[in-house]
Amino acid sequence: MAIALTFLLLLLSLDFSSSLPIPLGSTLHASSDRNHSWYSPNSAFSVSFIPTATPGSFLSAVLFSNTVPIWSPGTVDSGGSLRLLRSGSLRLVNSSGATVWESGSENEGVTSASLEDSGNLFLRSRKNTTVWSSFAHPSNVIVPTQPFTVGKSLRSGSYSFHLTEEGSLNLKWNNSVVYWSQELINNNSSSNLSSPSFVLERNGVASIFDSSVGVMVVSVRSSDYGEGEEGVFRFLKLEEDGNLRIFSVSKGGEIQTQTWVAVADQCQVFGFCGNFGICRYDGFVPTCECPSVNFVPIDVNDMRKGCKRKVELEDCRGNEGMLDLNNTRFLTYPPELSTQRFTLGTEACRANCLADSLCFASVLMADGSGVCFQKLSGLVSGYKSPSVPSTSSLKVCKPVSPYSTVEKSDERLLIRALIIALVVIATRDETVDMEQVTRMVQASFWCIQKHPSQRPSMGKVVQMLEGIIEMAKPLAPNALADIRDTENS
Predict the structure, then answer these.
(1) Which residues lie across from 322 on neighbouring strands?
(2) Residue limits of the Bulb-type lectin domain (predicted)?
(3) How much of the chain, in percent, has pLDDT values that exceed 70?
(4) CA–CA dist 14, 66 (Å, integer)
(5) Alpha carbon of 437 to those of 416, 422, 465, 474: distances in Å?
(6) Out of 22, 69, 79, 165, which could bridge 113 as a Cys pair, Cβ 3.0 to 4.6 Å?
């Protein structure tokens, strides 16, 4: 009797949801409670909800280690749910009952669902055949052993990732502009492909396989390739910034470590800063700004949403001018290259765009080629850096007001910064912290550098003044250089 009771208690303590199929009629409610989840047999993966950055919003997802989303049908409010209907369809709904997403497997003979140890969520029929699976309908992540074939795509906002029939990987903006491409195999082999498949291996190698070629062709490797294969989970993710990355997570952990990135220079991602947005680096951080005071941000709290003209071109016909942006290149990728490319000089490049009512921007490649690109449609995505040899121009309504023609000159800005430093010195009882004064003067010098790309953000200025970050010696502002030249002469 005691043995029987002990066995019964043991059975009651087991979590059969981790090994039994998920029956029709099952429902998961939007909640952070991990007790309301569907688990894989090894418990490494779960179907659950996690809160998003937006209060009251929850992401429905297949999770690794209860934290890392590897597939998601979407987000719902706090009253939403994921339902496995008795009709055989998997449906994500909001609190109002409105459908956010549906598997489309209604009346297809589905009898149950199951989450496998690979992280693949299945809908199966009575004969155990697969009717639908998450691996066949990826969202923005590929996990090890998940085949990624032609016709499938990863999506994140306006960005998408594709495998072509020729065996190439592409990143696209708006499903049209190809801003990154990588050939996986040589041209001789690509003509013989029948059904290429891209796979991320557990050891961190991403490669392509095709039955007609019969070999695995290595394409990319994570920086931790081959390390801790049994204790590390790797996944490839298309993020909202348009970049494709491989991450590694220790099993049971939450810290995601980037081990590979497709576009090394984030500013080269098309549309990263939105329409008319210019991407530049503040230290190592890509930041977005408007081209000049002729433009204003669409959302001052999110510069990645781009900018708009203060006065639209339709409202100033006959009074347009060209705003020149030095060390700036408007990104131009296929299919734009073939239709908007010309060989022109600097002035002709600008003049042709100004005279053409359809042209609203131009870029002259300062590499000796004399190539001029003109933007006639689509989005203007710019990249600004002292190392960029190109000059770009935007058509705006006069007066043309570049940032370089600010009201205060370098001399006046320098005087103002020094006055502030002196005022601070005058108000410290009887003790003067000369180290702090030095930091203030050096920070003010950094703020008035000739090139805007060399000027620190306000957050970085605060860190400089507080001594949180080490401050390099700034270049002498133009005003001081002029004073020294006068004294030397």
Answers:
(1) 395
(2) 13-136
(3) 80
(4) 19
(5) 15, 9, 9, 15
(6) 22
Query: Do the domains at 14-133 and 141-264 have one common CATH topology?
Result: yes
**Residue 151 class from Cβ within 10 Å (0-12 exposed, 13-18 middle, 19+ buried)?**
exposed
By residue count, the chain amounts to 489
CB-facing half-sphere around the CA of 181: CA atoms within 13 A: 15
Strand-by-strand arrangement of the 148-149 sheet: 148-149, 197-200, 205-209, 216-221
Rounded to the nearest 5°, which phi and psi values hold at 304? -70, -10
Q: Answer yes or no: are the C-beta atoms of 354 and 289 closer than 8 Å.
A: no
DSSP code string of 257-268: EEEEES-SSGGG
| Options 3.90.1580.10, 3.40.630.10, 2.90.10.10, 2.60.40.1730; CATH of 141-264 | 2.90.10.10
**Helix, coil or strand: residue 197:** strand
CA–CA gap between residue 171 and residue 482 (Å, rounded) = 49
Cα 72 to Cα 81: distance, rounded to the nearest angstrom: 13
Rounded-to-integer distance, Cα 377 and Cα 439, Å: 47
Tell me which of 3.90.550.10, 3.40.640.10, 2.90.10.10, 2.30.170.40 is the CATH number of domain 14-133: 2.90.10.10
Distance CA 431, CA 425 (A): 9
- Cβ atoms of residues 204 and 259 within 8 Å: yes
What is the rounded distance in angstroms from the CA atom of residue 287 to the CA atom of residue 91? 39
> Domain limits of the chain?
14-133, 141-264, 268-397, 410-488
Work out whether strand 159-163 and strand 153-156 pair parallel, antiparallel, or are unpaired: antiparallel
Alpha-helical (H) ranges within 64-217 are: 187-190
3-state secondary structure of 26: coil
Q: Tell the residue number behind the tokens 């199929």, with chain if given.
A: 21
Report the C-alpha gap between 150 and 173 in whole angstroms. Answer: 18
- Quickly count: other Cβ atoms within 10 Å of residue 44's Cβ: 18
**For the segment 332-360, what is each residue's pLDDT rounded down to a tens digit?**
888 776 666 677 777 888 888 999 988 98
How many CA atoms does the CB half-sphere of 107 hold within 13 Å?
A: 0
What's the pTM value of the predicted model, to 2 decimals?
A: 0.77
What residues pair up with 236 in beta bridges, in sequence order? 142, 246
Question: How is the chain split among helix, strand and coil, in percent rounded to 5?
Answer: 20, 35, 45
By the 8 A CB rule, do 77 and 57 touch? yes
